[in-house]
Amino acid sequence: MPTYVTDGVILRRVDYGEADRILTVLTRDHGKIGVIARGVRKSGSRMAAHTDLFARSRMQLARGRGELDVLTQAETLGPHAPLGDARRAACASVCAELADRVLESNHPDEETFQLVADALADCTDDDRDPRAALVWLSRRMIDRLGYAPQLYRCASCSTILPQVSAWFSAVAGGLLCVGCAVADLGAVECSVRVIKVLRVAADGDAALYRRLRLDEAELVTLEMVAERELAQHLDRQLRSLPVLRAIERR
Ligand SMILES: [Zn+2]
């Protein structure tokens, strides 16, 4: 079987048969692919750690005859922190599920790979806020899906928004002025500061975004906005979101 080498992160995994695992891997060079890792649930398997959720490895894969390629070798890329923290693990799960849902198989895209790999790395990094990482990934993915929201003019009447709070409406596709906000009871009130964060994310300015310190109320608002948009644009809700909500409420 011909083999190839690529970097990959594990988005999803299921146990299969006696000792195998089937993995959904986002790779740098081949996009999202299905992989079978044989024998990795046997004790002492050298490759077991590379099949952990959210692990990032350089993988050697053999082209399978069917849908799945076969993991033949792997080497860890960078530190792989264990996700003992429930909140971090829950955020990483939402990031991985979002990537899995949104990305088509076998469509390589370097920027998307980096975006997802960075978000998952931030979720395990004690110096990073995993919720801020999730908000960033959601914003960038919504943009990449072609649903970039209207953030400078009212999405309904097109007036330029003044420097005051506005209401985010996923149905209208962006911020609404005070006059139009009543039309969508599900619209989320956004402070001037939240609007600024949305605009920074829309500009794709990762360096500036990382410098912003988001407080609890801002994070909650940004999460609500992203959640409404994802509900609007994906046909099913992300399964891992209610888990994250339950952990946040504790
Ligand atoms: Zn308006």
Automatic annotation (TrEMBL):
What family is this protein classified in? Answer: Belongs to the RecO family.
Q: Which domain of life is it from?
A: Bacteria
- Name-wise, this protein is DNA repair protein RecO
In terms of Pfam families, this protein maps to: RecO_C, RecO_N
Primary role: Involved in DNA repair and RecF pathway recombination.
Q: Which Gene3D superfamilies match?
A: Nucleic acid-binding proteins (2.40.50.140), Recombination protein O, C-terminal domain (1.20.1440.120)
Upper lineage is:
Bacteria, Bacillati, Candidatus Dormiibacterota, Candidatus Dormibacteria, Candidatus Aeolococcales
Which InterPro entries does the annotation name? ARFGAP/RecO (IPR037278), DNA_rep/recomb_RecO_N (IPR022572), NA-bd_OB-fold (IPR012340), RecO (IPR003717), RecO_C (IPR042242)
Record keywords? DNA damage, DNA recombination, DNA repair
Q: Which residues form the DNA replication/recombination mediator RecO N-terminal domain?
A: 1-78
Alphabetized SUPFAM superfamilies for the sequence:
ArfGap/RecO-like zinc finger (SSF57863), Nucleic acid-binding proteins (SSF50249)
Naturally occurring in which organism (per UniProt): Candidatus Amunia macphersoniae
Question: What are the annotated GO cellular component locations?
Answer: bacterial nucleoid
- Kindly list the biological process annotations in GO that this record carries: DNA recombination; double-strand break repair
